[in-house]
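Weekly modeling sync, notes
Attendees: S.R. (lead), two postdocs, one rotation student

Agenda item 3: backlog of single-chain predictions. S.R. asked that every request posted to the team notebook include the full sequence so nobody has to chase files. The rotation student volunteered to paste the first one in as an example of the format we agreed on. Action items at the bottom.

Example entry:
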Amino acid sequence: MAVNAGIDGVLAGAGVAGSFWLTDPARPWPVPLALPLGGAVAIWLIGVPFGLARLHWRFVSFRDLGMIGAAALVAALMLVLLMVGAGLPIPSESFPVVLALALALLLTAPKLAYRLARSRNVEREAAQRAMLVGSAESTELFLAAHARAPDAPYRVVGLLGLSAKHVGRRVHGLDIIGSAGDVAAVLGRMPQKPDLLIITAPEWGGDALAGFLTAADQSGVRVLRAPSLTSLAPAARKIELQPIAIEDLLNRRQVSLDRAGMARLIASRRVLVTGAGGSIGAELARQVAAFGPAEIMLLDNNEYALWQIDLELAETHPLQNRRMVIADVRDRQRMASVIGQFRPELVFHAAALKHVPIVEANRLEGLRTNVLGSCAVADAARDAGAVLMVLISTDKAVNPSSVMGASKRLAEMYAQALDVQARHGAAADMRCVTVRFGNVLGSTGSVVPLFRRQLAAGGPLTVTDPQMQRYFMTVREAVGLVLQACLAGSGATAIPDGGIFVLDMGAPVKIVDLARQMIRLAGLRPDVDIAIRFTGLRPGEKLFEELFHGSETPAPTDYEGLLMASPRLCDLAVVQDAIRGLDAAATRGDETAAMRILARMVPEFASTDGLAVSGTVG
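Predicted structure, as returned to the notebook:
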C-alpha cells in the first residue's frame, strides 16, 4: 500500500507540473515550485476514502478506473480552490480542466497498461489453448474472471455460441466463430485445434450437450464445465473447471409442475418422511420444507444420515420446525408410538432395503423392512388420522426376479387395498398413493457413484452384462414428480381405485454405454485408458427392467410426466392374512415359509429357489 501511495503521489505531482506547462508554455514552471507537492498531498488525502492505495494493479477493473478518475477530479478541484484561496495566479482559464484530465490520465494509464501487459504474459505462458462455449452473458462473466485469475492455465482463442444467430459477434475482443451445434465443422476448419472446450452456460444439458460431447470426443478435444456463476464473482481469484456430470446429459425437458397445488397440500401441515437420510427421503425433505409445512418429522435408523439431512435443513430453512427420530420402521410398537404422538397429516414412506444382491442374501430382513415395515407405517399413520400416505415403489416390483422387487410388489398391494377401502369407506379414511419409478442417478448404492470410485482408482469399470439396461432419472426430477403424484392422487376422482402412478422415465440406458460416457467425461478413452470388465448377473438381477406388468395397461394422466398403471387389486382381508403369516414366519426365522407366502401373493415372482406359485390372487 505504501508503494502504491508513493507512486500515486509522484504521478499526481507530475500531473500538476505538466498542467502548468500545457496551459502556459511561456512560463512552464509551477508557481510556487512546491505546488506539485500539494498535488501529491491532495491525492493522498482523497485516496483514503476512495481506497486508491489498496488497488491491486493486476486486477484493476473498469469500475476501479472510473473511481480513480473521480478521485483525480476531486483532487484537481481541491488544488484549484487552494490556489484561489491563497491568492496564487491561475495560469489560464483552462487550467482546472487540464489539471483534472492530466491527473486522471497519469493515475489510470500505468495501471491499465500493467494489467494488459500481465494478461498478455499470462496468455503467452498458458500451456493450453481453450475455446469457450455458452451464451454471451456467461462467456463475458467467465472472461472477466479469467482476466483476474493470477495463474490461468489456458489461453482463450475463440468462442462458440449456443445459437447460430450469435455467430460473428464479439465478446471481450474475441469473435464468436460458430455455434455449438457445428462444433465438428468449426474444429475441422481451425489450423490448430484448441486443447480444451470450456462450457460456460450452467443450464446447458440434455441431448444437445450429449451430441456436443460426442462431436468433441470424435475431434479429440476435451470438454470441461466452468464453475457456477457465483464462483465467478469479482471476489473469486481462482477458476476451478469441473468435469461434465453424467446427470447433465440426462437433463430432459423440464416438466411443468403444479407448485401452487403442492403448496396448498403441504403448507401448514405436519409431514412425516421415513428413510429421510436416504437419497429419495432426503430430497423429499428438501422439497417439502420449501413449501412451509407446520413441522417435519425426519425418521431414519441411520444416525449419521439423519444428522446430515437435519443439518442441511437447519442451514437452508432455519425457521422450519423439525423433529429427528431414530427408529426402525419394522418395530410396529415404536411406529405406533412415534406416529401417534406426532399425528402427521401427510406421510412419505421412502424407507426400504433396495440393494438387490444384499436383500437376496438377507431375505427375511428385506421382507421385514419392505413389507412389514411399510404395513407398520401405514397402519400407524391411519390410526393417527393421517390424510394421505405416499409409498415409494420401484420398477423392480414389475415381474420381479428378486426378493427386493417381490417385497415391494407386496407392499404395493397393501397400499392399493388400503386406498380402495378409503375411497369406498369413511370420508376420513387415509388415502394411499403408490408411485413407481426406476433408478435415480447418484443415489446411494447406484451405479454412478460406483463408477466414479472405480474411475478415481484407475479402473476397471465393472458392468454385469453388455446388454443390461436401466431406466434413469435425476433424484430432483423424480421427487418433484412424486409430489405431483401426491397432489394428483389426493383427491382426483378420475384415477381408478388402487391405480399406481408411474413416472415417465424416458428411454432405458445401457449400463455399458453409461460407463463409456463417464470415462469420456473424465477425459479418458474407454478400453484404452480405462478398461470395462463384465462380471455377470448377480442373484436376483434382470437384464431389463419394466415399468408396467403385462396386465397393467399404461394410461396417460392429466399431469405431464405421470402415467397410470391400471390396477391389479387384491382384497384387503387376503393381503392382511398374508401379512400376518409373513410376520409369524419372520418372527420364528422360517425363511422357506416366508418365501412361499411371498410367491403365492406375487405369482409372477420366481425366486432362485424356484418357489413360484401359479395362478392369481384375489
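Discussion: group reviewed the output briefly. The mean pLDDT is 79.
Action items: rotation student to repeat for the remaining queue; S.R. to check formatting next week.
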